[in-house]
Design brief:
The protein has 82 residues and is mainly alpha-helical. Helix content is 83%, strand content 0%. It is elongated and about 75 Å long. It is a multi-pass membrane protein.
Length: 82
C-alpha cells in the first residue's frame, strides 16, 4: 500500500469518526475539547486495565485452584493433626 492511498484511507477513517460521533457540527475548539476528553478517558481505561486486570485474574485463578485442590474439613481437624 503506497503512502497516498494510506493517507486517503486515514482521512476516510477520520471522516467516519466525525460522522459517527456527530462532532462534525461542532466548532474546531469544541472538537478539540471533545477529542481531549475522549482520549483522556480511553487512556484512563487502558491504564486501569493494565494495572488492575492482572491482579483480578491472579485472584480468580487462586480461588479456582483452591476449589480444585479441595479444602480441609475444618480448622479443628488441622489443629488436631499437629
Amino acid at each position: 500500500m503506497d503512502m497516498k492511498s494510506m493517507r486517503e484511507y486515514m482521512g476516510w477513517l477520520y471522516y467516519q469518526y466525525l460522522l459517527i460521533t456527530g462532532i462534525y457540527v461542532l466548532e474546531p475548539w469544541e472538537q478539540s475539547i471533545f477529542n481531549t476528553v475522549l482520549c483522556t478517558m480511553v487512556a484512563m481505561v487502558i491504564y486501569t486495565s493494565y494495572v488492575f486486570v492482572p491482579i483480578h485474574v491472579r485472584l480468580a485463578l487462586e480461588f479456582f485452584f483452591e476449589l480444585v485442590r479441595g479444602q480441609p474439613e475444618s480448622t479443628v481437624a488441622l489443629m488436631n493433626q499437629r
